[in-house]
């Protein structure tokens, strides 16, 4: 299973705390970890953990912080194709606090707002395989990858976490829009063959031209919800070829395994076991 993922990579500084701080309050963390983050990057780690070939088209650059993210991704089996390998500015950084009692988190991130435009054509030879997953954070890259995938007949999955201007042009190229519960299209209508909506611990809803329904999420005691949606999207992309309901159920099970483990990569060994 070869999955091409195009989108955001960040450096996540994750602090585990007893309680999330109020404005002006200082708290002592129980643990701190640094890992690669971002929707596409976390999904790529998931694909690799499941035994797939994960090819991540992204921007990291040559800054020392970028080396931290790159090392984490490569250590977890992701092949990183960097569109701006000589960029000296720091990559996007996310400050994350995770509450120990229930795994709830807060995230402050700059994302890819300051990344300059870059040539996308050198990356398009990588667009082949079983599935493409986009998060829309690098708009021109997302559009170019989606167009190439459409030419080749490779199915395109969109991680639709929030509305982005590029989606006006991107959605007609998408086969599956996997949306968060907070996602809203400006006209309220998503003209996509398959629309899926995740809702945390709630059932995952889906609709197609011919059918609609929901798939329950396994009940687990949440230890860490950071990146759970990204893991869901990675597992869904890896499941390309399965019937839709079975594919959703599989992604639900993988995401549940993620939230059961505390830490940005503690879940990976358990997910590797799931493929055996």
Automatic annotation (TrEMBL):
UniProt-listed Gene3D superfamilies: 3.40.1190.20
Protein name stated in the entry: Ribokinase
Keywords: Kinase, Transferase
PANTHER family: KETOHEXOKINASE, PHOSPHOTRANSFERASE SYSTEM TRANSPORT PROTEIN
Organism for this UniProt entry: Amycolatopsis albispora
Molecular function per GO: kinase activity
Positions of the Carbohydrate kinase PfkB domain: 3-181, 194-266
InterPro entries attached to this UniProt entry: Ketohexokinase-related (IPR052562), PfkB_dom (IPR011611), Ribo/fructo_kinase (IPR002139), Ribokinase-like (IPR029056)
């Amino acid at each position: 299973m070869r999955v091409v993922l195009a989108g955001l990579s960040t450096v996540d500084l994750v602090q585990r705390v007893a309680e999330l701080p109020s404005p002006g309050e200082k708290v002592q963390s129980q643990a701190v970890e640094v890992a690669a983050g971002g929707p596409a990057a976390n999904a790529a780690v998931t694909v690799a953990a499941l035994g797939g070939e994960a090819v991540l088209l992204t921007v990291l650059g040559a800054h020392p912080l970028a080396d931290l993210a790159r090392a984490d991704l490569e250590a977890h089996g992701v092949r990183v194709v960097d569109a701006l390998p000589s960029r000296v500015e720091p990559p996007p950084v996310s400050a994350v606090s995770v509450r120990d009692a229930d795994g709830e988190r807060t995230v402050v991130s700059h994302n890819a707002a300051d990344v300059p435009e870059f040539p996308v054509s050198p990356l398009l030879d990588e667009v082949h395989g079983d599935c493409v997953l986009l998060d829309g954070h690098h708009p021109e890259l997302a559009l170019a990858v989606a167009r190439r995938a459409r030419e080749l007949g490779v199915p395109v999955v969109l991680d639709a976490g929030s509305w982005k201007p590029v989606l006006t042009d991107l959605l007609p190229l998408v086969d599956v829009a996997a949306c968060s519960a907070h996602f809203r299209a400006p006209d309220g209508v998503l003209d996509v063959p398959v629309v899926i909506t995740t809702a945390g611990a709630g059932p995952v809803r889906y609709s197609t031209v011919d059918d609609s329904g929901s798939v329950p999420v396994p009940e687990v005691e949440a230890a860490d919800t950071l990146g759970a949606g990204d893991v869901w999207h990675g597992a869904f992309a890896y499941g390309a070829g399965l019937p839709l309901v079975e594919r959703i159920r599989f992604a639900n099970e993988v995401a549940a395994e993620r939230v059961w483990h505390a830490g940005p990569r503690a879940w990976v060994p358990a997910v590797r076991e799931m493929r055996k």
